[in-house]
């Protein structure tokens, strides 16, 4: 929001208040940005408050009430080591946060993927940076998933982000190849290398001995 271009905030390139003294009409892009910012803040506040409430109101998994003796009951097999030590409310809330965060990551990337695909240009996206981040997502997922007792909701967000970023990277690489073939830059501006210029030396067009 802080770096949003001022001339894109309103329908015209004029100041916030026009000559008549009436406020200018917000652009659709700026209105959408404000709406998404408010939704993000509201989601963060509600999630933080509910998480704090569940943590404070649930018994600590480290200091659970002592089970009746003898324990474990010899008539039953050993308990499942992969079972979650968290209370039911916290476990369900953690499941919701993991799934919802994965969905939000997908929603975050889909507009950029769609725009880049339709524009057929790389634009301001950094292909080298994505080449580093995409394998980094794989390493992050493996480092979390291979830990003992880790729930899948802990790494699903990074997995979805990695897949979406790899999709965006593949599109950018395809358009990068096309741009080089068409001799245009990332924003569609034609590039005229010296070897393709009809007059590489303007001061010596006629030629001299």
UniProtKB/TrEMBL annotation:
Compartments reported by the entry: Membrane
Protein's membrane topology: Multi-pass membrane protein
Keyword Membrane in record: yes
Residues that span the membrane, as ranges: 29-56, 90-110, 122-146, 152-175
Keywords, sorted A to Z: Membrane, Transmembrane, Transmembrane helix
GO CC entries: membrane
Gene3D superfamilies in the record: 1.20.1280.290
Protein name from the UniProt record: Uncharacterized protein
Annotated source species: Mycena venus
């Amino acid at each position: 929001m802080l770096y949003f271009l001022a001339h894109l905030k309103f329908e015209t390139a004029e100041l916030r208040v026009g000559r008549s003294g009436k406020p200018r009409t917000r652009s659709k892009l700026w209105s959408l940005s404000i709406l998404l910012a408010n939704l993000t803040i509201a989601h963060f506040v509600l999630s933080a408050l509910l998480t704090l409430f569940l943590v404070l109101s649930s018994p600590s998994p480290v200091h659970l009430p002592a089970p009746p003796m003898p324990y474990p009951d010899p008539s039953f097999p050993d308990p499942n080591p992969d079972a979650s030590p968290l209370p039911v409310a916290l476990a369900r809330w953690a499941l919701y946060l993991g799934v919802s965060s994965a969905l939000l990551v997908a929603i975050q990337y889909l507009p950029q993927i769609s725009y880049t695909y339709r524009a057929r240009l790389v634009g301001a996206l950094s292909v080298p940076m994505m080449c580093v981040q995409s394998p980094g997502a794989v390493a992050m997922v493996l480092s979390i998933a291979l830990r003992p007792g880790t729930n899948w909701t802990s790494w699903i967000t990074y997995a979805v982000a990695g897949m979406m970023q790899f999709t965006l990277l593949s599109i950018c690489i395809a358009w990068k190849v096309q741009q080089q073939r068409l001799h245009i830059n990332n924003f569609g501006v034609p590039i005229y290398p010296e070897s393709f210029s009809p007059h590489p030396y303007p001061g010596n067009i006629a030629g001299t001995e």
